[in-house]
Structures are given as C-alpha cells and as structure tokens.
C-alpha cells in the first residue's frame, strides 16, 4: 500500500511507476516500460555514453532496450542538446554546492524564463531543502547572512 503522503507531492504517480518497474524486474515479468538507460548506440546521432529514456523490456536480467526510434530528427536535436546541457550543469552544481553553478544550470533550462527567476528559484529551493544538501552548507550560510 502506498503512503498517503505520496499523493500530496509533485510527481505523486511516479511511485506507482517505480513499483511497477520493481515488480517487473523482481518477478521477471518481461514487461515493457519507459526507463532511463545508457543507450550504447541504439540512437545513432547522440553520444553513446548518454542515458536516454526509451522503451525497455524489464525482467530478472534488468532492462533490455527496445527502442522505438533509432535517429532523432534534426529539428529536435537543438532541444535535446539544450536539455543535456542543463542536466550536465545541474549535476556539476549538485557536486560543487556553489550558487553560481546552480544559477548557470537554471539559466540553461528552457523552463526558467529569466535570470531573476533563476536566482529566486535557486535561493528559495536551497534554503527550503538545506538539510538534504550537505554540499551547499557554505552557500546556505551565505544566503542566510544576506537575509539579515
């Protein structure tokens, strides 16, 4: 049974999907799901070391890619590279714990509309989730000192 708290947060139904994926692997269901996997060249026009979300058959042996496409249209490659740039920058920011790295990542995201939005979002989220962000301890201290 799923805890009620999962219904009160964003992405509430990801927990259902996660349980279905675990069930498919544990019980060797050979069920088809969309999961993130290293694509190892299944898609011919992105780097082989990138992870992609694609159709896979899941069972006891893990995820076996069953891609529905093997080539991205040139018209979507710009967006794919933009999102990958954001993902790489966000990962680097998580490791560094530096506010400027977070701001760079957020400004690369097509979902963030301005520098001002990025700064407010970064400050609010870092302060709200500080107990889960040990790499950001110095950044949190600096942000708190600026509030006074």
What does this structure look like?
A three-stranded antiparallel sheet has the order 1-2-3. It starts with 13 loop residues before the first helix and ends with a helix. It is 48% helix and 14% strand. The protein is an alpha+beta fold. The chain has helices spanning 14-26, 74-96, 99-108, 115-128, 137-147; strands at residues 31-38, 51-59, 62-65. The protein has two domains: 13-71, no CATH class; 75-147, no CATH class. β2 (51-59) and β3 (62-65) form a beta hairpin. It is built from five helices and three strands. The longest helix is centred in the middle third of the chain and has 23 residues, at 74-96. Its cofactor is NAD(+). It is an enzyme of class 3 (hydrolase).
Low-confidence stretches: none
Classify the helix fraction into a percent range: 40-55%
Q: How do the SSEs run, as a string of H and E? A: HEEEHHHH
What count of domains describes the coordinates?
2
- What is the alpha-carbon Rg in Å? 19 Å
Distance between the termini: 45 Å
Number of strands: 3
Mean pLDDT score: 91
Shape: globular
Structural class: alpha+beta
The largest pleated sheet is described as: 3 strands, antiparallel
Annotation field: number of helices: 5
Beta content: 5-15%
Spatial strand order of the main sheet: 1-2-3
GO biological process, one term: carbohydrate metabolic process
GO molecular function: 6-phospho-beta-glucosidase activity; metal ion binding; oxidoreductase activity, acting on the CH-OH group of donors, NAD or NADP as acceptor
Protein name: 6-phospho-beta-glucosidase
Organism: Leclercia adecarboxylata
């Amino acid at each position: 049974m799923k805890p009620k708290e999962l219904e009160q947060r964003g992405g509430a139904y990801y927990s259902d999907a996660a349980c279905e994926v675990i069930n498919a692997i544990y019980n060797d269901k050979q069920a088809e799901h969309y999961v993130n996997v290293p694509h190892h060249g299944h898609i011919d026009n992105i780097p082989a070391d990138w992870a992609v979300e694609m159709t896979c058959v899941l069972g006891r042996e893990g995820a076996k890619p069953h891609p529905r496409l093997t080539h991205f249209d040139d018209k979507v490659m710009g967006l794919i590279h933009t999102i990958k740039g954001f993902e790489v920058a966000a990962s680097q920011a998580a490791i560094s714990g530096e506010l400027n790295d977070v701001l760079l990542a957020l400004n690369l995201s097509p979902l963030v509309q301005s520098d001002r939005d990025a700064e407010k979002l970064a400050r609010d989220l870092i302060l709200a989730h500080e107990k889960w962000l040990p790499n950001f301890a110095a950044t949190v201290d600096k942000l708190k000192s600026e509030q006074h």
